[in-house]
Specification:
The chain is an alpha+beta fold and 219 residues long. Helix content is 51%, strand content 16%. β3 (132-136) and β4 (141-145) form a beta hairpin. The longest helix has 34 residues, at 66-99. It starts with a helix and ends with a helix.
Length: 219
């Protein structure tokens, strides 16, 4: 990131000199740096940062070498992630503890809650099924065939037992979620379109095999 900002600074400075817009471009560069710092999620001292920019532009010596700075940033980022993970985990635990006391909410091992918002009929998802589902998250909607052996535990345990046409909202604890550092609670709305999407393909395959065998017999 430091090298990228350095390259941007050189390019922007040249552009600014040519266009005579030093103040405006300088402010925009500050926004760019601030945006990158926000994405890093590091608790930096902005006054000290501005001091460093000023002293660096005057050729004064830095309190840390570039290697030491990168190492310190890495350690600071690791600490920040650890605090965020702890915060998200505490919030997830509290949410599930309060949610499971509500009417119509079912708990699975205390790590997964679900509520049925629309009842279904027909075939049921079994542990060996490959269901076709429509999943809605905070910022996405997707239709896919789930391989339950590869799905996260929250989805795996949350869709088994669903009937075709059923819609459930799953509240998934981080332990039943994805193996990442965020440790955030996951909330999915899942609609079961077909209990086992492999049934049709198996039937079609068997019909084709039967047709081929009949053709061979005739020949």
């Amino acid at each position: 990131m430091l090298k990228m900002i350095g390259i941007c600074l050189v390019s922007v400075t040249l552009f600014a000199v040519e266009k005579g817009e030093i103040a405006k471009i300088s402010e925009a560069m500050g926004h760019l740096i601030g945006k990158n710092l926000k994405e890093l999620g590091l608790p930096l001292d902005l006054d000290a940062l501005v001091k460093g920019v000023n002293e660096g532009s005057l050729g004064k010596e830095s309190p840390l070498t570039e290697e030491e700075c990168i190492e310190a940033l890495s350690n600071l980022q690791a600490e920040s992630f650890a605090k965020l993970e702890e915060k998200n985990l505490a919030e997830a635990n509290l949410f599930l503890k309060e949610k499971q006391t509500q009417e119509g909410v079912t708990s699975i091992e205390g790590k997964l809650l679900y509520e049925v918002v629309k009842k279904g009929e027909g075939k049921i998802v079994e542990s060996y099924s490959k269901p076709l589902v429509r999943i809605k998250g905070n910022s996405f909607e997707d239709e896919e065939i789930l391989d339950l052996d590869e799905a996260i535990q929250g989805l795996q345990k949350g869709v088994i037992g669903m009937k075709e046409g059923e819609v459930r909202i799953l509240y998934i604890h981080p332990d039943f979620g994805y193996d990442d550092e965020s440790k955030e609670l996951i909330i999915y709305e899942v609609e079961l379109i077909k209990a086992d999407a492999t049934t049709d393909s198996h039937a079609a395959s068997n019909e084709l095999l039967s047709f081929d065998l009949n053709q061979l017999v005739k020949q």
